[in-house]
TrEMBL record:
One of its GO terms (biological process) is fatty acid biosynthetic process. This is Beta-ketoacyl-[acyl-carrier-protein] synthase III. GO terms for cellular component: cytoplasm. It catalyses: malonyl-[ACP] + acetyl-CoA + H(+) = 3-oxobutanoyl-[ACP] + CO2 + CoA.
Length: 333
């Protein structure tokens, strides 16, 4: 048997820069409740959401991903031509193929970067960061751009009182590259396909076409079981990510959970017994649930507002349809 050469990359990988894009149109709860039997008070009390942003027609998945990426590249001080792989986590690029990542790579002016989309719903960005760290360390790519982007307003039934107030739009991106010290801890990830129906598109495209009254296959959700799963099972996943990174909750500075529901964020912090000194992302109040974009959007805001400082230790954790989840500890760039 002929032995093959193998690749090897940097000893360590880290987040080098983060950027985000917030769509221009602010949608307050007052607008949501025009179409459903609900109230601003109920929505705030049960979810913590005060408003969200829904993209205008010009704010496409491609456009938002490119804008967030440009800011991440600037923050990292990296030229787009140094990017060798672009990973876009999204469920709202409305073309089955090709991947929107190829357009994003092209718009940014990367030089023939590998580019592909991943479908891990709300957990997509943390899946991407885990993969990017391995690609950099394994020698498959020098620098990787990881983007979480969604236009969930396209997939939201504004008349469904179980979901209309939750889902929203936006983009966040991070540059992952070589580092002298470990900046991305081991990923803890998994899925529970037995709960495939907990959050899903109502029909697949063939059912839509066959239907007498074709309609967008909107997202549907069993809110209560999802809530219970996220609030309890995800605390264990977060703890495992801390353990695998070799740190305790006392050594954590920042907690950036998926922005699904303020009560889930609070329950996770309580179950994980995070000290009061840990700064917690609460972007959901202004942004709603932006699925794959929520973690980088929230992290970028904390960096911009001085809540997350360079060199601090942050736990990222995201979870959603699948039911898929992923978590890792990172060093704030
Ligand atoms: C959606 C969610 C906020 C609903 O909150 P909940 O406390 O579970 O609400 P329930 O579905 O149990 O309903 C409780 C009551 O509120 C009512 N209700 C449901 N939706 C309502 C709405 N939009 N406005 C007002 N009342 C509503 C129900 O009819 C029910 O009334 P009843 O007690 O008289 O029967 C919550 O389940 C949730 O956040 N789930 C997880 C969502 C999530 O994280 N999704 C994404 C993961 S990526």
């Amino acid at each position: 048997m002929t032995a093959l050469k193998t690749a090897s990359g940097a000893q360590h990988a880290a987040l080098l820069g983060v950027g985000s894009y917030r769509p221009s149109r602010v949608v307050p709860n007052a607008e949501i409740v025009e179409a459903i039997d609900s109230s601003d008070e109920w929505i705030q009390q049960r979810s913590g959401i005060k408003q969200r942003r829904w993209a205008t027609p010009e704010e496409t998945v491609r456009m938002m991903a490119v804008e967030a990426s440009r800011k991440a590249l600037d923050a990292a001080g990296i030229d787009a031509r140094q990017i060798e792989c672009v990973i876009v986590a999204t469920v709202s690029h409305m073309l089955q193929t090709p991947a929107v990542a190829t357009l994003v790579a092209h718009d940014l002016g990367t030089d023939n970067a590998a580019a592909f989309d991943i479908s891990a719903a709300c957990a997509g960005f943390c899946h991407g960061v885990g993969m990017a760290a391995d690609l950099v360390r394994g020698g498959s790519a020098g620098h990787v751009l990881v983007i979480g982007v969604e236009r969930l307003s396209d997939l939201t039934d504004v008349g469904d009182r179980g979901t209309a107030f939750i889902f929203a739009d936006g983009a966040g991106a991070a540059v992952v590259g070589p580092s002298e010290t470990p900046g991305i801890g081991p990923v803890v990830w998994g899925s529970q396909g037995e709960h495939f129906d907990h959050i899903r598109q109502r029909e697949d495209w063939r059912d839509v076409i066959a239907s007498e009254k074709p309609r967008m296959p909107h997202l549907v959700m069993l809110g209560n079981p999802v809530f219970r799963w996220a609030a309890y099972a995800m605390a264990k996943v977060g703890q495992e990510a801390l353990d695998r990174a070799g740190i305790t909750a006392d050594q954590l500075d920042v907690f950036v959970p998926h922005q699904a529901n303020m009560r889930i964020i609070d329950a996770l912090a309580r179950s994980m017994k995070l000290p009061a000194t840990v700064k917690i992302a609460r972007d959901i109040a202004e942004m709603g649930n932006t699925s794959a974009a929520s973690v980088p959007l929230a992290l970028d805001r904390m960096i911009a507002e001085g809540q997350a400082r360079s060199g601090e230790t942050a736990l990222l954790i995201a979870f959603g349809a699948g039911l898929a989840y992923a978590a890792q500890v990172v060093t704030v760039p």
